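Slides due. Your pick:
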Amino acid sequence: MNNNIKIFAGNSNIPLAEEIASHLGMTLGQGYATTFSNGETRVNIEETVRGCDVYIVQSLSNPVDHHIMELLIMMDAVRRASAGRITAVIPYFAYARQDRKTRPREPISAKLLANLITVAGANRVITMDLHAGQIQGFFDIPVDPLQASPILAEYIKNNLNLDNSVVVSPDVGGVARARAFASRLHLPIAIIDKRRPAPNELEVMYIVGDVKGKTCIVIDDMIDTGGTLVKGADALLEEGAIEVYACATHPVFSGNAIENIKKSHIKKVIVTNTILLDKEQLCDKIEVLSVAKLFAEAIDRIHNNRSVSELFV
């Protein structure tokens, strides 16, 4: 890599940023974000970025709003320091589930966040597995939505016997994702159809497809509290599945997610490192795969004006 490219990192996922830089034969730029005593974010960029191709790596994980402010202020800092081009590398994009109005007087927070990132100075965004694909269109700048499915599928191929397996979508909305994942593995799909019989009554889950006597691989973009995933696994086992695995790109793991997973009948949960997990969040059931090489390849292609779309195949 030449000296005209710089990679900086916010505080949300420094290990991933360091790994991305390492794949590019680089080290992270000298810049950091701290907090003033009054809680405001302070940013220092301690090397020149004038005319440089600058990449700022920041997952918008918990504490979400604090990490958003770090990203925005870092972009503003390098923009005011005359960076040539600024790319926000956002492995996990927050507020993605607030992509439309579902009731009167609701915000569309994902669109607001897209506006903030653009106004702060981003010329481009690299992200991964947006919860809602239309968020790409919320930006008026180029967005490269990378996919973790090749990495997850490779792990599944190398570690599971796929002779009697089926890919499962945890809901109707995830069918396209499950179909694409199943195509990589040359497997059939099934769907968990969730319905609420009446207000305030528990969801009833119906399984669409044949799972009896099969190994089920549930695929989703994220795992939040894990409650729905655990219920879905129980429903699959009740329908005759012999074991259940889960794959997801983003390990949000809020609330009692880890306890829910530990107590569940799920054999293993395979996630990526788009979100940095604490040691307390790691257990034998959770396998973390790295997406650093994929992000490094995207950065290399963008910096050298080569096609990024080949990475989406």
